[in-house]
Give the backbone structure.
Amino acid sequence: MSLTLTAAEAAKILKVSKYTLYELVKRGELPAHHIGRQLRIDPAVLDHYLRGTYGAGNTSPAAISAFPPVSPTIRFIGSHDPVVELLFEFLKHAPFPVESSLSFKGSMDGLMALYRQEADISGIHLWDDVSKDYNISFVKHVIPGESVCIVNLVQREQGFIVAPGNPLNLQTWDDITVEGLNFINRQKGSGTRLRLDAYLGAAKISPGRILGYENEENTHSGVACHVANEQADVGVGVKAAAQRLGLDFIPLFQERYDLVCLGITTKTPVWKQLISTLKSPGFIQAVNQQNGYDTSLTGKILLNT
């Protein structure tokens, strides 16, 4: 056998999919290492795993020391919030370190990625006007019949991000239709965009009346940068993003931002470390040091099927 095996080669030997192999590595059941960005597996370790003798004292100590286990990596696809970045920074330095792959694509895209198993965790803030609640009905609709878990990350304020002093005196949703006002929007599928479009529909306001409606940003930080650089007069985002750049913030509504995963993920050490981190005094304190957040539900399981 060659010195090391690629993920595809190891999966073929085990007669499993590459996804299953990555899950074995992520759960710490099969040691692996990286060469650049490529996962590599020691043939001796794989041989003992196949025989069911890995961890029974029969694996070559030299092989194990030469290829230490890779830190598990969790894939996040979902809505942006600075607290998400904060959480995964905490996880990176936790007693059980967890690496992360973060992609901010919006709430709906995050749920679809979870359904397709392209993500391990998603972050969403989707208001259902029928149930008068956040997220749960959307999860049940997009991922029907699957075991899922929803845990609260934070409750937060959203509102207008504007220049210091709010020179245009923006106060309500109606104000973004003022002639000449330059707006920066969030991308389609994001919870913030859906909330805006719901208001426009209810108020019978055509998006064409909003200058800049077609200009999109994927993150709250990106919206704030547009305002700070005078590329836009206003955008909708979280208070923390405005605060970081010295901008003003006009509150519009409060919402609940939750993390969602499939049931299989809740059985992994990674998920247990995430829940432990969410409930830790250090993480709670770090979130509370930022304006616009409520941690009274942080770490609470809201749905577990």
Summary: The chain has twelve helices and 15 strands.
